[in-house]
Known about the structure:
The complex is a heterotrimer. Chain A is 75% helix and 1% strand. Chain A is mainly α. Chain A has a domain at 84-268: MetI-like (MetI-like fold, Orthogonal Bundle), CATH 1.10.3720.10. In chain A, strands 1-2 form a two-stranded antiparallel ribbon. Chain B has one domain (42-272): Orthogonal Bundle (MetI-like fold), CATH 1.10.3720. The relative contact order of chain B is 0.15. Chain C has a domain at 14-103 and 178-262: Rossmann fold (3-Layer(aba) Sandwich), CATH 3.40.50. Chain C is globular, with a radius of gyration of 18 Å. Chains in contact: A-B, A-C, B-C. Chains A and B meet through helix 1, helix 3, helix 4, helix 5 and helix 6 of A and helix 1, helix 3, helix 4, helix 5 and helix 6 of B.
Amino acid sequence: MPSLPSMPSENSNLQLVSRATHLKEIALKNLFLLCAFVAVAGVLLIFGFVGFRGWPAFAEVGPWSFLAGTEWNPTDGVYGILPLIWGTVVVMLGALVIGTPLAVGTAVFLSEIATPRVRGIVRPAVELLAGIPSVIYGFFGLIILRPIIANFTDGLGFGAITAWFILAIMIVPTIATLSEDALRSIPPGIREASYAMGATTWQTIYKVLIPAAKIGIIDAIILGMGRAIGETMAVLMVVGNAPVFPESIAAPIATLTTQIVMDMPYAAGMHRTALFGMAIVLFLASMGLVALVRLISRFQTSIEAGR
Amino acid sequence: MNKNTANGIALALLWIAAILTVVVLGTVILYVFVNGIGQLSPEFIFTWPEGVAAEGGIWPTIVSTLYVTALAMIIVTPIAILAAVYLAEYAVQGRLVSTIRFAADSLASVPSIVMGLFGLALFVEAAGIGFSMLSAALALSFLMLPIVMRTTEEAIRSVPKYIRWGSYGLGATKWQVVSRSVLPASMPRIITGIILATGRAVGETAVVIYTMGQAINMPITPFDSGRPMTVHLYLLAMEGINLPAAYGTALLLMIMILAFNLGARYFLRRNRKV
Amino acid sequence: MSYRATPVADDAPEKITVTGLDFFYGDFHALTDITVGIKEKAVTAFIGPSGCGKSTFLRCFNRMNDLIPGTRAEGTITLDGQDIYAAGVDPVDLRRRIGMIFQQPNPFPMSIYDNVAFGPRLQGIKKAELDEIVQTSLERANLWKETKDILGRNGLALSGGQQQRLCIARVLAVEPEVMLMDEPCSAIDPTSVQKIEDLMDELKDRITIIIVTHNMQQAARVSDFTAFFLQELAGEAAVLVEYDRTPNIFTSPKDRRTEDYITGRFG
């Protein structure tokens, strides 16, 4: 064992942690925690206040006749939001059907095909698409797309189909950027292995890469779904706003969000309460989708851990 | 089908998807630009609306939009940055952190109309602030919070650990490490995140319509009401009274958004180079 | 090999004394029963195969390991006879007195001046004194001539070797008593290595230096004392095999394992 002569030298004392420093660091940490908790407080406040204002819609109209009632007629005190839920779902699904292939295609293009130069154009374009205000999309849809649709369908062009196209454009950035992240997080070795076995680019994409990024792409689509359900202004300006079950995809329709905007200016009493009740439904739906994404990723982690 | 043919067709489709995305963006921008450019003039920008608020200029709406956006930015920036500092530097992974993250993700996905009704219920009515810049800014700050939090957290996490060690090694306290080394090193990306979130606030309609009001007004104090550009555009477009003014408003709005986005990009690129 | 010309006296005081130190990362036992005395105003080198815990050991001296959750040290380390792991000791103050240089040069993304002024500013030293501190520190780090006209330039704009000397200047600016160097030359070019080794020789008149290196020639060139660490089996705790004056370690090691390592039979 090493043994060398020992003789401590003379020097200043080690300082102890001063109480002031200690308290300051603790105080700062708690201040930061408090700030982080603002997010939690926000969710609780939204739930609390919107819930408080909207709850009577469930209690007094009755949850069943509120959620599953087939007629929305506030003037006669009939508050059934099923037509609006139906409208929301129809608009959302159509937008997903159109938007998803475009978005996932763009994502695959960005991560697998584009040269850095081309990527440098497409990627910012996708991000800018996300930045354009929904009221401008609505305006564009109202002035440009609506007359075109009207020509094709012998109607006024207000209806689900117009909303599909506008909303499809709006969810492309959400789905495309998240899907691209998922594709890019695949280790490059996997691509090389596939190419080395003689696979073409396309075979590599759909047999190897898309399955590998599947969960990420599904998450992206779910979040795009959330965006579509919650979108208000753009849809409002093109759907025609009739709270009924539409006869065709080109007939006026209303969604939960658009009906709130249409009715808010004059709604009072139970009518106003019902609008807050619809906001509760929207809020729970959007939180449900976020929770679903979490569940999926937890499920995936547990599968991978079990392997 | 031959696998090379399939490959060719598939790649062509992917190209088309990407081109379509760019073309759609180009069309929207170009369309608004071509139709709005004739409307833009100093009179349009700097004068008040006339008649049923559809003629004349849009100056008060521009001021309202900038006012509320600046106010929201001032409110959200310190909270979001400190929250991100907590998540990136102080928090230990656990139930608390996953609750905070879930809340932030949920907040990010709350439909803007719900945020609008929430602002109406809490700030305008329950808190008694009324339709005002402040109510709208508070509601908007909840919308911006998760965006700024996320970009800031990513920025902080991307600071190399060597920078932290260097700072600790010199006898910095944790707060000194964060405030003097980590935050300055991640500042370009944090500012980019703030600019992007601000751009989002400029374009927001459904939140502000129920918290700021719709009456044309020149806001002076935070308790004044007003009408932001987005709401103005919505009303002009839906009533169809003065389409040129709608185009002009849309173009100005778009220019502001593009300026925010491109500005953020430019800023980030310039600061990445040392 | 060439060794240091002026040997440190046998009765030179110990700056740091380690007694029976065990170190754990969670359940992993990284170091076991290390006892060693580091002489004041001398250069001590820690050598050993990679993964043998020498860097971990180095980081115990300024409690940098505290920053990694789940780590724990048992036994005692004293600085000037005082236990640095004693309850209430401020690791922040400790790190002011025991500076550290890392493998990767890590200047802050700010000006050269601000880099050097960083430590003094932490202690609230005012602008008036800073200029002098910055100049003195850069001079001691042999970097003043190269940088006196570009003090406002970003520290990252310097070459790798200059960056490392900037980091040394940054540490010297807080007047540490001990400087820990964790493989300071492994990420820079050979010419710069020479400059840093010369610098260590100049600096040891004022401060105690401990250097971790995987380069045995370097250990032989720069150090007065050498400690050899070894983790004999993967997953087992590392031990201090031998500690002695550097020429003794390299010419007449007492332990067979040291000899094997020095002569390149493993590691």
